[in-house]
Amino acid sequence: MRKLLFFILLFCTVNLVAQDVKISGTVTAADGSAALGSASIKVKDKVVGTTTNSKGNFTLNFNGKLPFIIVISAVGYETQEVEITSASQNVSAVLVTKSIMLNEVVSSAARVNESILQSPVSVEKMSLKAIKENPSFTFYDGLQSLKGMEAVTSSITYKQVNTRGFNTTGNSRFLQLVDGVDNQTPGLNFSVGNLFGASDMDIESAEVIPGAASALYGPVAFNGLLSVKTKDPFTHQGLSVQVKTGFNHIGESFEDPKSINDFALRYAKSFNDRFAFKINASYLKGTDWYANDFTDVSGITADAQKGPNNPTRDALNIYGDEVTKNLEGTIGVVSRTGYEEKDLMNYGVYSLKLNGALHYRLSDNIEAIYQYNFGRGTASYTGSSRFDLNNFVLQTHRVELKGSKFFLRSYVVSENSHDSYNTRSLAQFINRDWVKDLSGNTVAPNQADATWFARYKAAFLGSANGVTPNSHSAARTFADQGRFLPGTDAFEKAKDASIHNYGLSGAGVFSNSKFYHTDGQYDFSSAVKVVELLAGGSFRNYKMFTNGSLFDDKENKIGIKEYGAFVQASKKLLDDKLKLSASIRYDKNENFDGNFTPRFSGVYTLAKSHNFRASYQTGFRNPTPVDQFIKLNVGPITILGGAPANSAGMNVYENSFTAASAGAFFPAVGAAIGGGMTPQQAIAANKDILVKSNVAYVKPEQQKAFEVGYKGLINDRVLVDLNYYHSSYTDFLLSTVVMRPASPVLGTDGKVNPAAAADIFAQQPQTVSVFQLYTNATDEVSAQGLSAGITYLLDKGYVLGGNATLSDFNIGEANINNIAQFNTPKYSTNVTFGNANAVKDFGFNLAWHWQSAFKWYGTFNGLRPGTIEAYSMVDAQINKKLPRYNTTIKLGGSNIFNKRIMQSYGSPRIGAIYYVALVFENPLK
User: Fold this and answer.
1) Which domain, by its residues, includes 678?
2) Its family (predicted)?
């Protein structure tokens, strides 16, 4: 009896602590428009929750202790909290309409949920409402309207975003997460923008942290973070379909208008509020922008002599003409005839994204998730060459356990480059398949270049029958006899053969690389109580395999392990008006010393709505696997990673001249020969212009940043955001070009060896090799910026927003050849104006962007600058809602005035896209 009584009492005690609670209720809008379907009801600080049906009704089962709080939210409405005190309580919630949420909740700035007004660092958010009303062709295009955001377009299906300078077309300094999963491709080591990732129909929000975020997110977040969150299938249920069709290439002389189509589908369903799933499918297809700037960018020709008649012509978007030779006598340097990009690149681009996720609530406080993402597409990428990422595949598997105070996540990211290739190399290999000698016999590819130049020389000097001597045009025509013409079977066969030939003997790019990642964090605040305490860690393991096409890994397998951990403490003082936070993170890559990255911040709240912030942050970035181990031949130059083992035995770091000094050496020798010296005399007289390179192996780059800002809400109608930052950079990773002669660089006297100088001037494969080496900047540089943004809620639902950013780069005493380039406009502005329901279910949105001109430096043009002209563009859309059919009709366009703009030098100019879209969203409950 005593035992039975004990168990009865224990059972009663347990039920007093935790009992089955079943509550029901209705959610409606305060304006009386309708019951709110798909409103979210969640137990505060738990994972359990439900959604309302089409009539606004809900039922929620919860096994817990009374009282507790439920949080009720819906898109476009204020969040409401209701205390539950009875096991059978009926709830009637009325949500207040907000045309725009000025006080959004963000989670990326401190890795916990907090008001955007009280964020310790600058953070921008694109809410679900903003995503739906985005006027640009895709959500990703609309990111450029956020304050401080920069964008460069290489392709319709590939846009890259960045913040606070040092922009590139392949940005490995800016972290992009989708549901916590790093969206980078393992072989390229940067996110390929909008080619992969989430479908527009499945994105719930996007948060951007401009500037260093390494203290909480590790080495990749050196320049900032874009964190995309997709829709929870428990909260966002039902069927959504988007059909979008449009046109680009409007008003172009070189191409007729082409269709561009985008289809997306999403379906989500919950069962008993315990199990839910979602599936997504999207497919975008169109004709890419053309890169057809034929400006002569020859690095060894005086500006006055450049142009289509220049024998040494090296046109920006013509490939194969980089191959040159100095022909003796009065002929000079001559380049081979190249092929235009349109004949080499696959401009039929597409992006296929498939996604499925299973969510199961193991308890009221633990949810298990499995998610699979498959992406396949084609895009053009501007790197050291123009690369065709053709049928590229990226897959991710994610498993996660999460609760209100923790998450533990593991995922794997794998790639398959399929038919990807390098267009510059492709042109050069095609050029070596058809050359005939003076007797009319086709020579072997390894003799083709020398034979072509021999034909040119013979024709120019009058040794070829029927050819006008001393004519560069006639000599080129003679040397090009037998040339494969684009579109012919011979051209296409040679092209296909080189694309599927990987490594140094072909243009194909092969990668089956992957990486494994595990990270987690726990909020100890409720246990510690004295401070808000958060801790977490991560581990990553790269497994690289390119079969020799990007890395020297046919025999030598390349794997890299890195790990990190952080702790963050926060404390509120002065009646909760002041919040101080401090965090520190330690990261270690197996090939480099470990790095500590601290962050300190403070936010002072005045009169509830006015918040002043200051922070000191540090950042660092480990050299990526590409930075360390790439070994890629792109025709006249070999790109070589900076890990010591990668160049062992090649004598490059030890025995080479700087390309800058060689650039000065060539014209000096030419001028001396023109003045009557023999080549040998001219070389001997000018050899000391050459400078032996002193390139260091790679190591992590470092950043220190200070920021102050203000964010305030005035009369619940005006949001003001101001910030200033100053950052200093050391050990910046960059590329430098060197030339390795066959002879020793220095003689026994310690001066430049005449034989090495002769090797350089000869510019023949057997005498000189050109390398692009990864290394670190030796000098310190700094950047500073000022941004201001304002959002104003006008009457009748109109919303006006604007922001402006000043970005300033201070090179100081640094050598411009030894630093990473800023690649950022000094001034940029955005203005948005819209109304979701201007009149009778009609809405509209406008977005205007302008930025100033600046110089772009990139490996595509051999680190020589090219001008990015100032430009402005307008995106716009009008829409009509059909509530009865759960459908919205959109008519809009990106860059509607069709100004053909270039955003990075060597990339295509982008024009307008005009589109019409049908969006069907049917809530299900």
Assistant:
1) 627-697+734-776
2) Belongs to the TonB-dependent receptor family.
